Amino acid sequence: MTKFSITKFVPKFLKLNPEARFTAREIAIWIMETYPEAVEQKRLNSNARKLPLDTYEAMLQQIISEIGAQRTSLEQRHGIRTTEGRPRRFFYSDKTEEDELIGITLLPPGDSVDAPTQYLSEHDLYPVFKDYLKDELKIVSKRIDERRSSNNRGVQGNRWLFPDIVGMEDLSEFWDHEVIEAAKAYSDKKTKLWSFELKLKVNGTNLRESFFQAVSNSSWANFGYLVAVEFQGSETLGELRLLSGLHGIGVIKFDPQDKSSSEILIPARERAEIDWGTVNRITQQNPDFKDYVKLVRQFYQTGDRLTSMWN
Hints:
The chain is an alpha+beta fold. The chain has 2 domains: 6-94, Arc Repressor Mutant, subunit A; 122-309, no CATH class. 44% of the residues lie in helices and 18% in strands. The protein is built from 13 helices and 11 strands. It has helices at residues 6-16, 24-34, 36-45, 56-69, 71-78, 97-100, 122-136, 154-158, 177-185, 207-218, 236-247, 276-285, 287-302; strands at 22-23, 81-84, 89-91, 104-106, 118-120, 139-143, 165-170, 191-202, 223-232, 250-253, 263-266. Strands 1, 2, 3, 6, 7, 8, 9, 10 and 11 form a 9-stranded mixed beta sheet that branches. Helix 2 (24-34) packs across helix 4 and helix 12 (276-285) crosses helix 13. This is HrgA protein.
């Protein structure tokens, strides 16, 4: 009979399904279904025998906990990779970290590992993320296409100047008319401006470049964020927290398959005032950004967000 072993079962399952990402729960279910005798022997030979014979969920939770506890060993000794954020996912890949950054393959939710997979590019994220901003954060947003820039820096140079998506939060949406007029007379602001740099993946290879790209092109706003579908590596979030503490850029883990499951991992530090000098520089070089500034101005003048005008 096969002896129960997390460090044998988990790598075997993931290597049978290379590149696919699985939660500890999904792996534990496979272990219980594939090695029922080993699981039962574990229950009898350990503290798990105290569990009722019919408590499937309790045994499942114990295996999930052990997978989490063995994460470091799985990474260091067995070549298993993990994502950061919740839920953490485990996967096996022959690709280098550089190759991993090229794209991402997602399993259809609820389907088996044999189901057709969906290849996702960074540009595929933009419309879905804009829906997330509108539905979850109540932010109207606009895509900034660096290819429309009038300067001669080229795409690689422009990515340090232009954010991928910019947004406006209407603080006065539910204010009484008298309060809006009072704020206007007091010259107080009734919006907060947001800026986002999107990536498919952030890992040890591109972490600092991605973060400082967000610092470079998003620090003009009240809130600047680095957004990614996956954060890979056991030290990734720790380093991002350190960098965020120094520079104020926040971090969002975005789930394009279930927008409501996305989460702000590290809140951005609010900038009290807009950096209008940087705004002017970007406006002069990119028509998309100039349209964004125009929409913000029109909102202040008319009180109408002109939602249909935000792409």
